[in-house]
Structures are given as structure tokens and as C-alpha cells.
Amino acid sequence: MGKPTGTRRKMDDMMEPRETAATYDRIAHHWADDVFPTADGIAQHQRALRFLGRPGLAIDIGCGSSGRFSDLLLARGFAVEALDFSAEMIALAKEKHPQVLFHHADICAWQFPKGYDFISAWDSIWHVPLDRSLTVVEKLCAGLNPGGVLIFTSGGVDAPEEVTNPCHGEPLYHAAPGIPQLLRLVDRCGCICRHLEYDQHPERHLYLIVQKPS
Predict the structure, then answer these.
(1) Cα 9 to the chain's mean position, in Å?
(2) Which of 79, 144, 154, 160 sits 20 to 30 Å CA-CA off 53?
(3) What pLDDT is attached to residue 5?
(4) Residue 59 is part of a domain; what is its CATH number?
(5) 200/93 Cα distance (integer angstroms)
């Protein structure tokens, strides 16, 4: 969804999370390679952390295999957990961070066992099927402790959209509910949008920083 190109899909042709997980199993090594740009998303996370201003309990949703956000959070004094639906991503991530508690699960079905002070869902929940995307964002907002901060990416579109884009030779499904729906949902969840930015313009890559009031 970061790029405006792709093949539009119909609602009855959306890719289920288990299919996307299998795709990531096949290409997981890419994010673990030394050539992967590990600075990707770091400045945005640093901005989000300034709204929190303290360490606490953090979870990386769709953590992948690079471990770059775990590195950042551990260095800031956070206790860190991570979740991914790709078994291969989890295996590679565990090699780098054995001290992190990993959850091998689909965020659509997984239930938060506790509240978190910082939640990251960078370039991950846009793989959630369109008809479940708002439910997942609502779940993330509900998983915040008072004062907690959520950072997540979405497609920078005005109306709901779903596409399939090629990634390292594999098709990957992306969906976005659109900015108006996201902002209305954040408000309904009792949270505040602290920051919204097209950080890779003209690509339609959007990130939001959301905070639950103390």
C-alpha cells in the first residue's frame, strides 16, 4: 500500500492472513540480511516515543526478522514483546533477541494478555483483510495503558482500498480503510491522533501516532 501501483482485488478475493504468513515465510531472510535498511522507521518511532516520555512495556506487532525496533526499545529501557504470524520471521528474530518474549499469532485472532505502554505496528497491519482492518486498529487502541502510545502505518488513501503488490517475487496483499475512517475510529476509541504524515511522499505510505489519555 506504500506505492499506488498494484492489482485491485475484490472483497471476495482478499488474501487470508495464513496465506500472507506463508508468503513471508518464503521471503523472511530479506529483512534479516545485512543489506536491509535498518534505519527504516526508526526516526518515526523516536518521534512517537517522545510523546510517551518514559520506558515501560512495549510490543511490536508484525515484528518481522530485522529486530530493529526491539533494539531501539531495549536501548530505551523497555521490556519488549513481539508478535508475528510468520514462523520463519519469529525464528530469525529469536536468534537476535532471545530476551524478547515472542508470540507466534495472527493479530486478527490474538487477544492482548495485558496493557502496553507502547505498541508498534509498522508496515504490518496493512496486510489484515479489509473487512477486519478497523477491528484490528480498535484492538490496538484498546491494548494501550493510560498515557500509552501507538504507532502504525496504513495506506494513505481517502476511501477503503485493497491491492496486491509484488514483493521479492511474491504477491502481497495490502488493505487500508482510508484516513477519514481511521481518524473517526481513533476518536471513538477515546484516543488522540498526535501525528499523521505521508513520510515517503509521493508514495502513499502513511503513519499515525496515537495516544490514549492518561
Answers:
(1) 21
(2) 154
(3) 37
(4) 3.40.50.150
(5) 26
